[in-house]
Model the fold of this input.
Amino acid sequence: MVSRMAVFVKPVVKRRGRRPAKAGDTREQILEAARELFSTKGYDATSMRAVALKAAVDPALVHHYFDEKSDLFAESIRVPVRPDRIVKQALEGPRDRLGENLVEAVLLALENERTRETLLGLIRTALGHDFAATLLRQFLVAEVFHRLAVALADEDDIEDGELRATLAASQIVGLILVRFGVRAEPLASADIEEIAARVGPVIRWHLLGYPQPDI
Amino acid sequence: MVSRMAVFVKPVVKRRGRRPAKAGDTREQILEAARELFSTKGYDATSMRAVALKAAVDPALVHHYFDEKSDLFAESIRVPVRPDRIVKQALEGPRDRLGENLVEAVLLALENERTRETLLGLIRTALGHDFAATLLRQFLVAEVFHRLAVALADEDDIEDGELRATLAASQIVGLILVRFGVRAEPLASADIEEIAARVGPVIRWHLLGYPQPDI
Done:
């Protein structure tokens, strides 16, 4: 039922008995179908329509509960932060603050201990299981890196944009690991503002090729 | 015997019988004592002398097998790459190539699949166990971050130097994770030279405060 996805999530407790299906059950039924399809077919090859079919519900019902595939995925693996939303929001702000805004948004989201622990657990899982790494990668490529590349890179050099996006991601992932995982001082206790001021230019450098707004 | 350190290393197979101790046994005896002390007292509070005492061997013998505490530690947890050595070597090269040289050395070391897998396993362990994270942190602070800070920072602002060192480390750790763990393209397949050219300036920015040699 939960198949290999079980490493990502706690097994769903099936309700027993013959009660008629309620809203909560339908939603959970959809999530369960999503978990199974994502974990066997991957992110890209799973459509919301296929999830509806698998869950034996009307496709409109899937869209009623989940706006987009990314939402369905995020909830199915209970991802504690939404990199796709953080990136989308940062892209709407001023370009010169793009790096600082991204860093601040990520660090603020991880002020919450539970969020942090869940995220570190997710990274640990992805490091230990090839299929978990693949799934996470597909999600990040489709919803984060490609979106960044399309928004920022030259149309004729999307691959360069994608390399830039993965490099920016590497800085942010490493920041999360060293600050919250290894907890190396003084980085672990440094103010978010100070970190943003130091790492913002790096993200800008990776994404746009220049470190300072005024160079 | 192996205590909590067991999560780091495969348990040592004890030889049975009454054979007289051989060189290999003594060395293993020292490593076993080191593992126990590191895992209970931490990196800083463990001296080579204490390891000798614990292993019931002459301190000179510990120095015969291991030059420094960092070597003893690295072997006791079977660390596949030596960040302390990589940093030491990079510091001996030209400052303007410091970032590029660090990135290249790390990526080259991880071309070896076994090295890579061991390192990813170590990171995974550190993410899951507080004491493992602590041990790794103490080692990195003492042998990598502090050394970098002392070599590069103003004497009167070692803390700034240490923050810089942890930020540089965060970029490198993230690079390892995204390239080898998540394996996000195009970063996963990019040439080492190209990555060094893009990430080198970031390391220089973190460590020295300027991205380009000629700015």
